[in-house]
Amino acid sequence: MKTNMTDKDKRLLVGMFIFVIIVAIGYWGVIPQIKAYSELGEKIEKEEAAQKINKMKIVNASLIEMQVEEYMNKLDAVKEDFYQMLTSAEVDRMFTEMALNKNLNIYELKFNMPQSPTDRMAYVYSALNQRQLEQIAEYEEMQKMAALNENSSSSSKKQDDGTTETSDEDSGKSASSNESETTKDLTSSMMGMEEGTYSPNTEVYAVPISITVGGEVKDLEAFLDGINNLDKCSLVTGYSWGKYRTVVKRDVNGNIISTGDAAVTATGEGVTTDELQTDTKIRKSLTVRLEIYMLDTSSLEQPAEEAAVENGE
Fold first, then answer.
1. Which DSSP string corresponds to 184-201?
2. Highest mean pLDDT of the ranges 70-74, 162-166, 303-307
3. Which of 48, 61, 134, 170 could cross-link 166 (Cys pair, CB 3.0–4.6 Å)?
């Protein structure tokens, strides 16, 4: 079969064919290998960074164990300053016994048992309160950044699956940022969180209490001193003085019908002179507002119980 193609056309056709083959080999063969090599290099860098951190962990393992043991001992010592998780009956009994031991009458005892851990904020106009607010804001910002990073990582996983493509420049930036984040995460996991940063309260429960008692001034002062010197963690948020009257109602024969206590703002308010002299007794009262702090300290009692079992006690 004869064709009208000249030698020049044949050479051009062969050149175009060779060019197409070279482009095909480059596009489907060389470029994927280059990308794979680049990704492999990034993985190697990440693994080398992780290896360095792991070597540091191995070298400092004994030191870290000592630090952990010291930290746990400090934590146990701090936990001993808190009340064990109390029931409402136990709180009522504790303060009732304190008042009765001081020969005081209990006019009112109110408290709210918390259902969740309670964050304790400092005085609103203090420098500590401002520092707490700043730390809380930083913590919330960190939580937002963590959520954004999680979303971006999920997006990168979709890109790795082939749903979308990114440029080499973007992938390079992503690789460098991932490497720095990996190193940062590994370092923080080895060294622990920075001391003094804010973390939400997940263990300590605050019980706000208000108690009003009446009696002799010296007994009331002793009761207030006892509240200030509780053996466990507590905080007196305020107190106030007042007066209570005890009114005794009698029949014509002088038999007691009923007695009752009521707060007064002035001596003898609401009763006659005869009742004041014979059937009413004015007593000084003290209202104390405080908080006690509880957490689960059962783990501290467990070693002592185990030791007792081992000793056969």
1. HHHHHHHH-SPTT-----
2. 70-74
3. 170
Average pLDDT, the chain: 76
* 179, two tokens: 């490497």
Residue ranges of alpha helices (H) inside 26-87 are 31-59, 61-79
CA distance 279 to 245: 10
Quote the DSSP letter at residue 313: -
Strands (E), the chain: 105-111, 205-215, 234-250, 256-264, 280-294
Taking 3-state DSSP, the helix, strand and coil percentages for the chain, each rounded to the nearest 5, stand at 55, 20, 25
Q: What is the band of 249 on the pLDDT scale with cuts at 50, 70, 90?
A: low
Q: Of 64-73, 95-104, 284-293, which gets the smallest average pLDDT?
A: 64-73
Between the two ends of the chain, the Cα-to-Cα distance in Å is 112
Reference 110, options 305, 294, 301, 288; nearest CA is 288
Residue by residue, DSSP assigns 196-225 as T-----SS-EEEEEEEEEEE-HHHHHHHHH
Residue pair 209/91 in contact by the 8 Å Cβ criterion: yes
17 three-class SS: helix
Strand-pairing partners, residue 261, are 246
Distance CA 155, CA 90 (A): 54
pTM for the structure as a whole: 0.55
112 vs 86: CA distance, rounded Å: 12
Give the model confidence (pLDDT) of 177-230 as tens digits. Answer: 554 555 555 555 544 445 556 777 778 899 999 999 998 899 999 999 999 999
Tell me the chain's radius of gyration from C-alpha atoms.
38
